[in-house]
Amino acid sequence: MKFLVAIVVVGFVAGSYALTDEQIKKGEAHAAACAKETNTPPETAAKLKTGDLSGSDQKTKCFVKCFFEKAGFMDTNGKIQEQVIVDKLSVGSDKAKVQQLVKKCNVKGTDACDTAFKSFECYTQNKAKVF
């Protein structure tokens, strides 16, 4: 699987969603831009892609936030955009199950980077329970 709606799709639900080519290309572009913006090493992004959250630091958390913002999953004030996530990730999937996961994983962190990361962590931990 490609670096898709990058960390979100691959890391959260590896293989559970049928994404369009356009979504895949946008995700790859967002991930590349965020890696540059946050100076995140490729190895870190690759670990996130597989759902490996070990050793995550503030830079990693801000990479996730950057991706979430570019994907429309989070606004610039750090608020998770549940409906956007559901709309984008329910292509070819059971929308009710996606909604359940998104609602469960809309968690608040200490700042916007931490909120994005905690949400990502929740998706990673709970995807198997939902799908």
Write up this protein.
It is built from seven helices and no strands. The chain is 65% helix and 0% strand. The relative contact order is 0.17. It has one domain (21-126): Pheromone/general odorant binding protein domain (Recoverin, domain 1, Orthogonal Bundle). Residues 1-7 and 9-17 have low confidence and may be disordered. The chain is globular and about 35 Å long. The longest helix is centred in the last third of the chain and has 19 residues, at 112-130. By secondary structure, it is mainly alpha-helical.
Q: Alpha-carbon distance between the termini? A: 18 Å
Q: CATH homologous superfamily?
A: Pheromone/general odorant binding protein domain
Helical proportion, percent range? 55-70%
Task: Assign the CATH class.
Answer: Mainly Alpha
Low-confidence parts lasting 5 or more residues at pLDDT below 50? 1-7, 9-17
Major sheet: none
* Overall 3D form: globular
DSSP, total strands = 0
Can you tell me the CATH topology? Recoverin, domain 1
